[in-house]
Amino acid sequence: MTDAFAADATRDIVEALLRRIAEGDHDRVAELFAEPIDWQLDWPAQGHPAVPWIRPRSSRADVADHFRTLEAHHVPELNGTSVARILVDGADAVVLGEIVQTVRGSGTAYTSPFALHLTVEDGLITRYHIYEDSLTVANALSV
């Protein structure tokens, strides 16, 4: 596979992922992931008690559960998350943007920049590493 072909295939999968996340189709999101998945969120290893979606993940079922739990704690109609740029280099992609969410229980809104590092191999996402302002998220959910 040429680098240009790999980059095009990676971009297609990343765009499909972002589209499915925006649509709230958690099972279809999970279909894009390999098993096991190299999953990492930019949080302390112990997570945070106010943020239940932060835990280790390794399977498609885990991926779907992550997005379901995330949605259950936020108001989807008030999600203003945006993507500023997608950078692709072969099988790797970095998505840069801003998370804008409102906590369902308290109505607290928060904003955090994010960077998402993905790797796509054989048409499936094998790496999902997201970096965000975890303190802002934890504070918003602790209100």
How much β-strand is present in the residues? 25-35%
SSE string, helices as H and strands as E: HHEHEEEEH
Compute the number of strand runs.
5
Strand order of the largest sheet: 1-5-4-3-2
Q: Which structural class is indicated by helix and strand composition?
A: alpha+beta
Weakly predicted, low-confidence segments: none
Q: Can you count the helices?
A: 4
N- and C-termini, Cα separation: 50 Å
Approximate shape: globular
Proportion of residues in helical segments: 25-40%
Q: Calculate the mean pLDDT score and round it.
A: 93
Main pleated-sheet profile? 5 strands, mixed
Using only C-alpha atoms, the radius of gyration works out to: 15 Å
Structure description:
It is a single chain. With 143 residues, this protein is of the alpha+beta class. Helix content is 33%, strand content 35%. The chain is built from four helices and five strands, in the order H-H-E-H-E-E-E-E-H. The protein has helices at 3-23, 26-30, 60-72, 134-141; strands spanning 33-41, 82-89, 92-102, 109-121, 124-132. The chain has a five-stranded mixed beta sheet. Strand 3 (92-102) and strand 4 form a beta hairpin. The longest helix has 21 residues, at 3-23.
